[in-house]
Amino acid sequence: MVMIELAKKHLKKVLEVCGANRNCEYYPCHFDGQVCLWCYCPFYPCEDENFGEWIERKDGTKVWSCMNCHWIHKPEVACEVLKEILELTKDKSIDEAIGLLDDREVLLKIRNKVLEKFKKEKKDDTGGC
C-alpha cells in the first residue's frame, strides 16, 4: 500500500512538530535529539529558577531566559504536557481552548501537575531517594 500525497504531507508536518526537527535552521536550540513539539514553551516565562533566569538586555531591561532548560523538550514531558492540554480542552472549540489556555494560572497548574508526575516517577525509579 502506498501513502497518498496528502497523508505524506500531513505526516511530514507531524514529524517536524513532534520529533527532532533537524530541518529547522535553529535545531538544536537546546540539545541534540530534542523534541520540538513545544518550540515555543506554553509556560514561558515560568519564572522557575531551576529552569531559567532573568537576564539583562543591552538596553537594561530584563527578559526571561530558558536557554539552558531542557525539560519541555524531553519526549516524555512534551507528550505529557500535550496529553494534559488535550484532556482539558477536549470538549472545546479551538478558540475556546485558546481562550482557556490564555490564562497563566491554568497553564501553571498543568506545568505543576506534569512536574509532580515526573518527580514521583523519578523517586519511584530510584527507590524513593
Automatic annotation (TrEMBL):
Residues 17-89 form the Cysteine-rich small domain. It holds the Pfam family zf-like. This is Cysteine-rich small domain protein. It comes from Methanotorris igneus (strain DSM 5666 / JCM 11834 / Kol 5).
